[in-house]
Amino acid sequence: MATILTLAGDGIGPEIMTQAIDVLEAVNKKFALGLTLESGLIGGVAIDATGEPLPDETLARARAADAVLLGAVGGPKWDGIERSKRPERGLLKIRGELGLFANLRVAKLYPQLANASSIKPDIIAGLDLLIVRELTGGIYFGEPRGIRTLENGEQQGYNTMVYSTSEIKRIGKVAFELAKTRAEAAGTAAKVCSVDKANVLEVTELWKQTMTQMQQADYSDVALSHMYADNACMQLIKDPKQFDVMVTGNMFGDILSDEAAMLTGSIGMLPSASLDEAGKGMYEPCHGSAPDIAGQDKANPLATVLSVAMMLRYTFKQEAAAQAIEQAVSEVLDDGLRTVDILDSSEAGLKQVGCQEMGQAVLAKL
Amino acid sequence: MATILTLAGDGIGPEIMTQAIDVLEAVNKKFALGLTLESGLIGGVAIDATGEPLPDETLARARAADAVLLGAVGGPKWDGIERSKRPERGLLKIRGELGLFANLRVAKLYPQLANASSIKPDIIAGLDLLIVRELTGGIYFGEPRGIRTLENGEQQGYNTMVYSTSEIKRIGKVAFELAKTRAEAAGTAAKVCSVDKANVLEVTELWKQTMTQMQQADYSDVALSHMYADNACMQLIKDPKQFDVMVTGNMFGDILSDEAAMLTGSIGMLPSASLDEAGKGMYEPCHGSAPDIAGQDKANPLATVLSVAMMLRYTFKQEAAAQAIEQAVSEVLDDGLRTVDILDSSEAGLKQVGCQEMGQAVLAKL
Ligand SMILES: CC(C)[C@H](C(=O)O)[C@@H](O)C(=O)O
Ligand SMILES: CC(C)[C@H](C(=O)O)[C@@H](O)C(=O)O
Q: Residue A139 CB: number of other CB atoms within 10 A?
């Protein structure tokens, strides 16, 4: 009997979570998965209720659960709070405490939504790119960090970007293995592009060397290339289909995965997984809490619904149930249903729907 | 009598510099500017000749000169060299030693080249965006840095991202002032977007606070907004025309300025200026040394030619001469001349030319 902890969070979190839970309950029944759902507090709502962005109780229940489904955290309401108590701290803390070092973000173009992108159709047609981002190290967690007063009276802020060989190997392995799995499924050759700034930063020089050594020692069947972060950011725009799996550190991964998502024009569609060494994971949409549209039934619930599919696939090995959800999503898109973020007003035959109508349409397909 | 030091560097550096020097000599004569040109070594060619990527002699002459015109540095030939001796170190050192803290990169769409971009025409039509990047601080120069062996025998790489209030104010001032100048010229309201990752990094929290204080104290006539780096990377793709001036630190600036350049589809067209506190500067194309096409007369010399125009404008206050160059470049584009990087093979009436033919065509217009 497996348990899933749902953490709706802030902004549009509760609305999208409601729809995702409906979908999860439906496949739970249909495929007799035997999953039990619990809910908990994180982010701003947790601050309001307990004073902490990640209450001990939530953390304890997340540890006990087999998987976590997260909505989104943060909003202007909590911007003025002292740094250590802000909603984002809850997110960073749960990632760190659960050891969720491997963040998988897929940038996939839904053919039904090709027009929603700012990119020309031929550049992105068929795009299906996986970014493997290291999530519990690098400059996000590095010490020392802070803001201090210098002798001359002015202030100085500082952070430390740090990676050890073992941290690099751990995430490198995930990238190489996933490249092999993806290549096998697609009948293509496996390839990984490792992104660094080794011409400037020593920490990423170690990153680059370590990736090279791993490839030579254990992954001679995977083609490894290296790219500087600035160039990678350009190449994603120029020719994103040159990539299959990209692997990089926490900060470059934050930037590049958002960029890749935006290429598809539909960040409201993209799920993510954050996994620990045993494959236990937290699943969440790539988009944020969108406080400007919260509570207006405008949000797109599909990224969260697709995060449920990812959870069933990666943590519970329920491929059939995962595919059933993905199929249902594809069908509602085929039917022309669109939340406002993916609506192309120049296209005929589309119907604008709210968060709830979209979620229930997916449910009806199951 | 003013002196310009030209540093051609590596890869395509010498070819593009030859064309840029021809153009510079021509306006020097036409506008009786009285400029004297010298040349020196930097990057890989300097390593080959002296063992150092920035020989003392080059640095001394750069200090003595009124402006520096740089081609590009680096290439696979020098990849194996010890880090402190690589070509890129020469570039970082000259930036640091000359105090060139303000890097200005303009992402401007040439209407003649609108089709060269991966971005849909309506998203980028009329794009003219200035990125102000801090160039002598942040994680590029922060200490401590290095790769060390830990007690457990594994290696650890580390770098430090650091900014003090005075460094932030210095670059902030450049951004606010340029926003006012640009707004005046365009007859619009001045606006600056400051890019940080204040939700995670203390150093950029100080950045954000300092920008806010400056705006409140001295620039209430400039609208200031803040954006996280990951979101900025997305917004540049979604709607780049929402920005006018963006200001950010060294590393985010490296990534975002390359991204912005790629939006125009013609990084071979984009010049940059790196200025010190007195307005003395180093001018260089935004693109790199492109070793794969070096020596084949394929490179686009226009970014370097336009860097000459920027130099005349910013360091020598010769607006008429600067405009004459920009006008000449625009005319050769109107004539349909294209180097391969900006050639749209689906467009009729274009003529593919090499580096030299392009340079000489600009010269002929002057
Ligand atoms: C909210 C923020 C702390 C977070 C991050 O930077 O990791 C977000 O941008 C993400 O990518 O999940
Ligand atoms: C070559 C490299 C050191 C340099 C940088 O990162 O600053 C380059 O990418 C640039 O943007 O000028």
A: 27
Q: Which helix (H) or strand (E) holds B98?
A: none
* CB contact (8 A) between residue B156 and residue A162: yes
> In the listed set B246, B263, B280, which residue is the last one of a domain according to the structure?
B263
Please report which confidence band the pLDDT of residue A1 belongs to, taking 50, 70 and 90 as the band edges: confident
Is residue A114's pLDDT more than 90? no
Any atom of ligand 1 within 6 Å of the Cβ of B231: no
pLDDT computed for residue B90 by the predictor: 95
Q: Tell me: cis bond preceding A144? Omega within 30 of 0 counts.
A: yes
Taking each helix axis from N to C end, the angle separating A87-97 and A56-64, rounded to the nearest 10 degrees, works out to 40
Residue B204 pLDDT level (bands cut at 50, 70, 90) = very high
CATH number at residue B243: 3.40.718.10
Domain, as residue range, for A317: 1-111+272-366
Asked if residue A92 is part of any domain, the answer here is yes
Q: How far is it, in rounded angstroms, from Cα B177 to Cα B268? A: 27
Pocket perturbation via mutation, ligand 1, pick of A92, A254, A307 by most ligand atoms within 8 A of CB: A254
**Measured between alpha carbons, how far is A192 from A226 in angstroms, rounded to an integer?**
9
- Together in a domain, A329 and A306: yes
Q: Give me the amino acid identity at B17.
A: M
A122 given a catalytic annotation: no
Name the catalytic one among A196, A244, A254, A341. Answer: A254
Give yes or no: A218 in active site: no
| Token pair belonging to B42 | 């930097």
Q: Is beta strand A2-9 parallel, antiparallel or unpaired with respect to A35-40?
A: parallel
The C-alpha atoms of residue A28 and residue A325 are separated, in whole angstroms, by: 11
CA of A289 from ligand 1 middle (Å) equals: 11
Please tell me the distance from the alpha carbon of residue B176 to that of residue A95, in angstroms, as a whole number: 38
Q: Is residue A119 part of a domain?
A: no
Domain count, chain A: 2
- CB distance A299 to A10 below 8 Å: no
Q: Cis peptide leading into B144, omega within 30 of 0? A: yes
Please state whether beta strands B245-248 and B128-134 pair in parallel, antiparallel, or not at all (unpaired): parallel
Does a structural domain hold residue B75? yes
Distances (CA, A) of A100 to A133, A286, A306, A310, B339: 11, 16, 19, 15, 48
Per-residue pLDDT reduced to its tens digit, A19-65? 999 999 999 999 999 999 999 999 999 999 999 999 999 999 999 99
Q: Which of B263, B285, B320 is the last residue of a domain?
A: B263
Tokens of B198: 């204040």
Task: Work out the burial of residue B264: count CB atoms within 10 Å of its CB; fewer than 13 is exposed, 13-18 middle, 19 or more buried.
Answer: buried
Between the CA of B254 and the centroid of ligand 2 the distance, in Å, is 7
Tens digits of per-residue pLDDT, A245-300?
999 999 999 999 999 999 998 889 999 999 999 989 999 999 999 999 999 999 99
CA dist., res. B284 & res. B4, Å (int): 13
**pTM (whole model) above 0.85:** yes
**How many angstroms is it from A94 CA to the middle of ligand 1?**
12
pLDDT in tens, A304-326: 999 999 999 999 999 999 999 99
Statement: residue B238 has pLDDT above 90: yes
**CA of B244, closest CA in chain A: separation in Å?**
19
How much of chain A is helix, strand and coil, in % rounded to 5?
A: 50, 20, 30
